[in-house]
Amino acid sequence: MSAQVHIHRSAELAASAAARRFIEIGSIAIERRGRFCAALSGGTTPIRMYEILAGSELSGNANHGGLRWESVHIFFADERCVPPDHADSNYALMRRCLLDRIDIPECHIHRIKGEWVPGELAANDYALMLREFFGAGDAGPPNAPTFDLVLLGVGEDGHVASLFPGSAALMEDRRWAMRTQAPEGVAQRDRITLTLPVINAARQVMFLVTGAKKLSIVRPLLAGSGDPRWPAAMVTCAGATEWHVDEAAAGSAE
Ligand code: 6PG
Fold it and tell me: Ligand 1 within 6 A of 43 CB?
């Protein structure tokens, strides 16, 4: 299925469009299946989207265009191997920008235990939790959980979640979550990530990418001429894929 690409004039507009779509996709999932299961990414780009989601203009009252947060389950596309209150923790970031500001039941927040050592333990624990949550009878492909939405950013090297170019984890076809390592020079190299079969089994993948630094990666990806070894190029979601990018990242791709 081909991707829908939305190019927005600014990063702010991209963030609010992505937030609006999050609410639309979530509301439809809740209406159809009684719950909305979303795996979210960290990094800097989605912060504004999370803040907008937490803001009163979009969340809150379901009758006024908001999302019924009591039916939402939040998962994580990846995590750094740090304690949950660490400045680099994706969980801490999401708590601050979104989770502490909405009415979501605590038991609907399914974090990766980045503080567990070794990281393999945390990856296995996360995979086990996914297995228990989604159950063997979930409607998706037999061996992967079916998230209603996976939200991804893209790194300047083409990574998504914590799947980095050249990583053996890109070949994984059995495990749902793995410990990986970011390349040298990247802060917090030890990571836990969902694997490609899980990301690709989602009902919907949404990319949110902004800023001129991403131009050399986003432009070829949108034109279909990206390096097939870039993890972002390996995201071939079974469901729908949509991109929200700003003009700085898209360049002349319009
Ligand atoms: C993370 C992410 C990662 C991120 C990209 C883009 O935890 O860091 O899940 O995959 O989305 O690195 O990050 P920026 O939005 O900061 O550019």
Answer: yes
